[in-house]
DNA sequence: CGCCTAGTTGGCAGCGACTGCCAAATATGA
DNA sequence: TCATATTTGGCAGTCGCTGCCAACTAGGCG
């Protein structure tokens, strides 16, 4: 861990890095499979480790928490979110910028099916939902300065917070409905519908 | 537990009920004190039980989870919320109805100081925040039919969800700012400010 | 008053997520 | 090939929480 053995682009150099990559993927896949098969709460870390062929201790070294086994490192979400939004043209409307961020995050999923499965799990498991909301709250705080700067005359903290939280609230409402409809339609359309209902 | 020994109004009848009441209060106070003194995560159930003079087992019988030690049964929040909103005149605007609900929930705190202390703890402790958001999400779902019915032409699920979630988002932004300002000003004023920022 | 019963309490063992510590295994570079 | 840097696994322990069972106690009855 002294230096990352893979150069940003990909192509793992050392054997270690390749093995790590492989193990990581194996764990992730096993976890997702078991979660969808028997539910998140009904799947223990011990079982995942056993079926993935690693020790519990190692599993925790790869992924710090059980939640991280879903969706890899969700920290990437935050990264993509802030990056996308700060890349928006300075004169773009706050709502437009936020929309772009939301779209970018949604695009992070490998496939429509994977996204649906994850959202389904997320919305049907209380503990997962709680964790996700918590992490999201941190993203929101990260976004604060970016959004505040984009508001007319530099908005106040509460106003900027409210705007950000509203965008996420719409994403929530949209994804929840999307799951209920078994993935029919486009989430972003639902998002727009939600935002329209709010901003009337 | 076969029948509640106190008639709705108050006046605990049996000695048992009185003892229970007393123990419950003692636990609650001890917990809140320790939480504010050393932080939520740094306070163990064992310590609370010890200092409150009950066994851990009993503590868990009174309050099912560690979170419940803050703010008693938060289920009351949900109750007050739905009650208040359904009591609003049928022709009232959705936003007005929601505002009334929010105000009613805020009025549930014993004092300004207590509210500030609770909010401070809530916003500074990740695990608490997560639990609270989760519980709130359930309240939101309870509100869905009520709000949907009040929207023009009976709104769709996503729209109603978005509206409700936005109201809570504003409450979040407001309370967070309120805490940062050490309780200066009125939360509802901040709430209005937030809502205005969102609805432009 | 004494006893029986129902409700209450406490202690113990155990589960699951998670961490620290130490020893064994393994890839790497000289 | 050997010394070194890393990685891995196992073990014990913490913390929230639950089930189970034995000890206790208030309340009602004769």
Could you characterize what this model shows?
The structure is a homodimer. Chain A has about 200 residues and is mostly helical. Chain A has two domains: about 15-70, Arc Repressor Mutant, subunit A, CATH 1.10.10.60; about 75-200, Orthogonal Bundle (Tetracycline Repressor, domain 2), CATH 1.10.357. Helix content of chain A is about 70%, strand content about 0%. In chain A, helix 1 (about 15-40) crosses helix 2 (about 45-50) and helix 8 packs across helix 9 (about 185-200). The longest helix of chain A has 25 residues, at about 125-150. Chain A starts with 14 loop residues before the first helix and ends with a helix. At the A-B interface, helix 7, helix 8 and helix 9 of A face helix 7, helix 8 and helix 9 of B. The structure holds a DNA duplex (30 and 30 nucleotides).
Shape of chain A: globular
Count of helical segments of chain A?
9
Number of strands of chain A: 0
Percentage of residues in helical conformation of chain A? over 70%
Count of the separate structural domains of chain A: 2
On the 0 to 100 scale, the average pLDDT of chain A is 89
Q: What is the CATH C level class of the largest domain in chain A, in words?
A: Mainly Alpha
How widely separated are the two ends of chain A?
Answer: 52 Å
**Biggest sheet of chain A: strands, sense, closure?**
none
Largest interface: A-B, 36 and 36 residues
| CATH superfamily membership of the largest domain in chain A | Tetracycline Repressor, domain 2
């Amino acid at each position: 861990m002294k230096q990352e053995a893979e150069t940003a682009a990909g192509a793992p150099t050392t054997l270690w890095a390749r093995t790590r990559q492989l193990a990581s993927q194996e764990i992730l896949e096993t976890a997702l499979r078991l979660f969808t098969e028997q539910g998140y709460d009904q799947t223990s870390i011990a079982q995942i480790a056993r079926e993935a062929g690693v020790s519990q201790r190692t599993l925790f070294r790869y992924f710090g928490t059980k939640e991280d086994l879903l969706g890899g490192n969700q920290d990437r979400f935050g990264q993509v979110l802030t990056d996308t939004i700060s890349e928006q043209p300075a004169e773009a409307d706050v709502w437009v910028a936020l929309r772009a961020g939301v779209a970018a995050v949604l695009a992070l999923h490998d496939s429509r099916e994977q996204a649906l499965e994850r959202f389904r799990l997320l919305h049907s498991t209380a503990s997962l939902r709680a964790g996700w909301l918590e992490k999201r709250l941190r993203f929101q705080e990260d976004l604060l300065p970016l959004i505040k700067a984009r508001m007319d005359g530099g908005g106040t903290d509460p106003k900027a917070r409210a705007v950000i939280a509203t965008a996420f609230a719409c994403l929530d409402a949209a994804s929840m409905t999307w799951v209920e409809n078994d993935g029919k339609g486009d989430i972003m359309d639902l998002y727009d519908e939600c935002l329209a209902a709010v901003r009337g």
